[in-house]
Amino acid sequence: MLRLVVSQTSPRAYRTVLDALQAPLPPYGPPGRHIMIEPGQYPATGFRSSGDFVLTAAAGPGSVTLDGATDATIEVTGNVTLQGLIVRNWSDEGNALDVAKGSVLAEQCQFVSRAGTVAVSVWNGGRLALKGCRVQDGAVVYSASSGLVESTDLAGTQSNALAIRKGSAVTVRGCRIEGATGSGIWVTEGSKPLIEQCTISAPGSAAVLVDDHADAAIRNSAFHGSGTCSLVVRDKGKALAEDCLITDAAMEAVWVTAAGSLTARRLRLQTPRRTGVVVEEGTGYFEDCEILGAGKHGVFVGERGRGTFVRGRVADAAEIGVAAVEGGSGTFTGVTVTGSGDIGANADPDCEMTLRDCAIVDNPGTGLVMAKTARVHMSGVTSERNGGEDILDFEPEVVTAKVVETALGAAAEADAKAGGAKAAPGPKPPERASADELLAELDAMIGLAGVKREIRKLTNLQKVAEQRRLAGLPPGPTIGRHMVFAGPPGTGKTTVARLYGRILAALGVVEKGQVVEVSRGDLVSENVGGTALKTADAFERAKGGVLFVDEAYALARETTGTDFGQEAIDTLVKLMEDHRDEVVVIAAGYSAEMREFLSANPGLKSRISRTVEFENYAPAELLQIVELQAGKDGYRLAGDARTAVLDHFTAVKRDASFGNGRAARRVFEAAVERQAQRLAELVELPSGEELSLLLAEDLDVETGLAARFGEARDAGQVRDVLAKLTGMTGLAGVKREIGDLLDLLASARRRREAGLEAEPFTGHLIFAGPPGTGKTTVARLYGELLAALGVLAQGQVVETARVDLVGQYVGHTAKRTADVFERARGGVLFIDEAYTLARSTGGTGHDFGQEAIDTLVKLMEDHRDEVIVVAAGYTSEMEGFLAANPGLASRFARTLTFEPYDVDGLVSIFVGKAEGADYLVPDETRAALAGHLAAERDRFREGNGREVDKLFRTAVTAHARRTEQLANGGEELTKAQLATLLPADITPA
After folding, report:
1. Is the Cβ–Cβ distance between 497 and 537 less than 8 Å?
2. I need a surface site. Which of 314, 338, 592, 938 has the fewest CB within 10 A?
3. If we measure between CA atoms, which residue out of 906, 831, 829, 833 comes closest to residue 874?
4. Is residue 842 pLDDT above 60, yes or no?
């Protein structure tokens, strides 16, 4: 991508963005332009472009203002990225940004237009993502388009702040919308948006209006002070609303009408001036909702309305708690109605009302008032401690007067009846440990620093969520309580799960906090239908606590015969949905296998959204575990024994199958057994000191340091990996670049510790150079280094190429690329010959390499802290690869150039391979080798280490042929002859 500069003062820079856009591109250069704009205000800006480009405020967000007064300040139809700009339009009908057909990403930008106009317009199939932006005075309109509005503020709009029209598909996430004179968000004409984690304050009309066949999903959002009704679904619109807070609506909190349809779960509707929920000429389903302090009624089901309410609470309505009028149908199951001023539940003539297992209690007014001609169905209803007697066959002309007249008298009579002897107190229940005490118990466990941080983070989220609920604030995003505990065995997953269950119980999130531990054998049956029964039984036992599924990945393993593991997973997913507030599920197992487990059912990953990584214990922590176990059993380690244990765990390979705490216990138990044998052979009885002391000779371990592989967060491993990198032949520039990256990382950490700003670490790299120059080896070492330094969770390297990423039909490539990326999470994704993704295959068929690149760019952004991507290939070809997507070049920190090896370097590689295979290369052979390499210089410069590897294998074959001929001739071969490569082996005749 051609880099250009726009400046008002710098010589040789372009003076306007339009000038830079019109600059000619090199005939054979990469497509597109990256235009850096130096600080300043640029008046009279107004341009239309169909090209691909990036506009960046060189000095950061807010340093560049582009002012226009034409139809649009920026009008684009290409692939465009805007970064850190203020874009304004002062025309009476102009847009700050107009997007048609193209794809635009705007990051940390501001868009301003005159009040009553459209500041940002997306139409005709355009795509727009607004991230971290602000839109002032003008509206944002998506029409027959798609995109994302994320962490963006919309303020001061004299109309609807955000309009989503004509079948648009838009995700609105984490946004604040304030002071719109119309609706905060208007969804219409068949559009299908997702609205989540948004706050809409003081709109003149609705906070969200859904109409005209639109279908909106609204989650974890808060609406405050709407000028009319807050959430409106009408005119055949459809909506799903979950986990939302609606306060202080000027009219109704929720209004469903004119063939609208709403499904609502866990809404909290506070102090609407009129009614909490009105359903008339529409359909509403409400589950676990709270309606508090309504100025008129809690629930009103009007003519041709059908309202279904499951569980939930209606409290402190000024007049009627729940009401159905003529032609309406209301069904209430498990609902509590309390504090209603006039009537708890009211069925008017010729309506239908069903009450099942409802509690109509503690209402100052009458509990139940049912018209004689109403179709009323009641079962399991509790109506008590209300101000007036229930009226089940009233005549319309007398009910209101009678209810109001008898309320105070009935309340006084109820108080008189309640005065009397109090029940004797029962036995005092045992005290439950507080959350802080349980967290202290967790902190006392050895190691597990990352796990402790994650559990404490979850605990704090639960605490604050409850505090916010009590304060009447929005609940915030749904806190995913179900978790995966991923990591090797013996790292304390079961112990932490038990503590976590008790912590949740202490916080009131679950009732009891017991942990039911199961594995595949407890859930899977050999008989059809038996698995669902066994799984449901285990889930039932876990209600009020935690279901801990150990080695959960075993449920997802494919077998050759009939296997019902998948049935167990599917049953779990349904039970987790049906009883989401009653059981916390923790699935445990190896990291890689658990990622496959989460893919076994489409709903599993969304329900278990959090993974806690349990890392291998460090050697010093394993020593602590051994000493702790010894102390519990009345033993202690002598000084030489401590050293031997530490050396043993330093030397042992700790991969995914290492036993960690179990391995430490085995070391201790073996030491006790060997000590017993030693002391039993003594002539005299051992003293108490001797009986309690474990010596180095009692340990069944090997001492001494050995190279460690893949251990995370260990200074010793950092030194070992750097030593391996330093020991590689050549690559001076590569070693220097990696050293610089490590220095940047260390400096950033020191700056953060000192309270200074530090740039986030960007570790994505381009490895450019011919094959055989060590790119794959360096990538593996790079992954180990970043894991050891705590940048990556695991440090594995997933090696891939075009064939692993590119599919054969539309959508196949994105899935294959995402699957490979998933395997690399926590480590390094190494893409060999990455440039082949950007090459056109020619012919008439489709090529999906570009789709793989575009998918990678998005995944690199979405998981920027989880995966390091290293793309490798020829130097010249990699420039084309970086130009294939506007966002690609900016995501790679730097390019490391792997130069071809010279003759000396190739000789060194050959000798290293020979020594590793127990062969000797004497001086005369080295001379012959150098001569051969020099004579074939072009071939070896192209193939480098790979060609040397072929040469070494050829030499070994020639050596075997030569020595076997000698042996077959009767000569007895010496060890030196079997080990020594001669010049004839290098260049056989």
Report:
1. no
2. 938
3. 833
4. no
| Pairwise CA distance, residues 701 & 683, whole Å | 27
Sign of the torsion formed by the C-alpha atoms of 632, 633, 636 and 642: negative
Q: What's the rounded Cα separation, in Å, for the pair 150 and 130?
A: 6
615-644 burial by CB neighbour count: b if 16+ within 10 A, else e? bbbbbebbbebbbebbeeeebebeeebbeb
- Please tell me the distance from the alpha carbon of residue 296 to that of residue 369, in angstroms, as a whole number: 17
CB 743 within 8 Å of CB 735: no
For the four alpha carbons of 853, 857, 859 and 863, in that order, the dihedral sign comes to positive
Angle at 580 between CA 578 and CA 583, to 5 degrees: 110
H/E stretch holding 79: strand 79-83
Percent of the chain with pLDDT over 90: 33
How far is the CA of 532 from the CAs of 552, 575, 582, in angstroms?
16, 10, 19
Distance CA 762, CA 57 (A): 20
CA distance 25 to 766: 24
Q: Any alpha helices (H) in 602-731, and if so which ranges?
A: 604-607, 619-632, 639-651, 661-680, 688-692, 715-727
Cβ proximity of 534 and 524 under 8 Å: yes
Q: Using the 8-state DSSP alphabet, how is residue 980 labeled? A: B
C-alpha–C-alpha distance, residues 906 and 729, integer Å: 8
Name the DSSP letter for residue 231: E
The packing angle between helices 565-578 and 530-542, to 10°, is: 40
Rounded to 5 degrees, what are φ and ψ at 326?
Answer: -50, 125
Separation between Cα atoms, residue 607 and residue 598, nearest integer Å: 10
Provide φ and ψ at 468, rounded to 5°: -65, -40
Q: Which two tokens stand for residue 862?
A: 């979405």
pLDDT digits (tens, 9 = 90+) for 37-73: 999 999 888 888 888 999 999 999 999 999 998 889 9
Q: Which two tokens stand for residue 791?
A: 């940048």
Angstrom CA distances, 719 to 89, 784, 797, 817, stand at: 57, 11, 19, 34
Q: Provide φ and ψ at 492, rounded to 5°.
A: 90, 20
DSSP 169-226: EEEEES-EEE--SS-SEEE-TT---EEES-EEE--SS-SEEE-TT-EEEEES-EEE--
Q: Does 975 have pLDDT greater than 50?
A: yes
Residue 683 near residue 628, CB atoms below 8 Å: no
| pLDDT at position 564 | 74
Torsion 6-9-12-14 (CA) sign: positive
Query: CA 896, CA 812: separation in Å to the nearest integer?
Result: 32
Instruction: Specify whether the CB–CB gap between 231 and 206 falls below 8 A.
Output: yes
**Residue 240 CB neighbours (<10 A):** 16
pLDDT tops 70 at residue 250: yes
- What is the mean pLDDT of the segment spanning 71-98? 92
Closest CA to 196 of 221, 222, 227: 221
The owner of tokens 């066959």 is 393
**AA identity, residue 25:** L
Show the tokens assigned to 450: 């990352």
Q: How far apart are CA 892 and CA 869, in angstroms?
A: 8
Q: Which residues of 24-56 are buried (b: 16+ CB within 10 A; e: fewer)?
A: eeeeeebebbbbbbbebebeebbbebebbbbbb
Closest to 595 measured CA to CA, from 584, 614, 611 = 611
In the numeric block, the tokens 């994105």 are attached to 814
206-220, 609-623, 731-745, 953-967: range with lowest mean pLDDT: 731-745
Separation of alpha carbons 823 and 953, rounded Å: 33
Q: Given its phi and psi angles, is residue 878 left (phi above 0), alpha (psi -120 to 50 degrees) or beta?
A: alpha
Q: 432 versus 898: which is more confidently predicted?
A: 898
